[in-house]
Amino acid sequence: MYDCQSDRYTDFSAPTPASANLALTGSLTARAAGRDAHDALAALAAHAERLGHAVERAADAVRVDGLGLADALALNAAHGATLLIDCDLRARRAVRQTHID
Q1: Superkingdom of this entry's organism (predicted)?
Q2: Which H or E run includes 81?
């Protein structure tokens, strides 16, 4: 990702402590990318439970609730190659935008 404020390229990473008050939280849904994805879904569910998250299981999907950006990135990095992952994260409070005139 390009950081225009410091004019350099950075990789996606976990949020820093300074951004904790604007932390993103939400849910992640993983779906089977093929017919033999049962083991991959089970592995993602076990990983999410080890991270301390509630997991809902269905025949062809797993939903993880109450996770933050760092855990969502970790789950995606570990299981994104074998599953279709959709994540909806939102700020805990409204973010104010300042305008430069």
Answers
A1: Bacteria
A2: none
Look at residue 98 and tell me if it is in a domain. no
For the beta carbon of residue 61, count every other beta carbon within 10 angstroms: 16
For residue 92, give the amino acid letter: R
The pTM (predicted TM-score) of the whole model is: 0.69
CATH code at 85? Answer: 3.30.70.930
pLDDT tens for the chain, 101 residues long, are: 455 566 665 555 555 555 445 588 999 999 987 777 889 999 999 999 999 999 999 989 999 999 999 999 999 999 998 999 999 998 876 556 565 54
- What CA–CA distance (Å, rounded) separates 51 from 64? 11
Please, what is the Cα angle at 52 between 30 and 25, to 5 degrees?
Answer: 65
Cβ atoms of 25 and 68 within 8 Å: the answer is yes
Number of domains present in the structure of the chain: 1
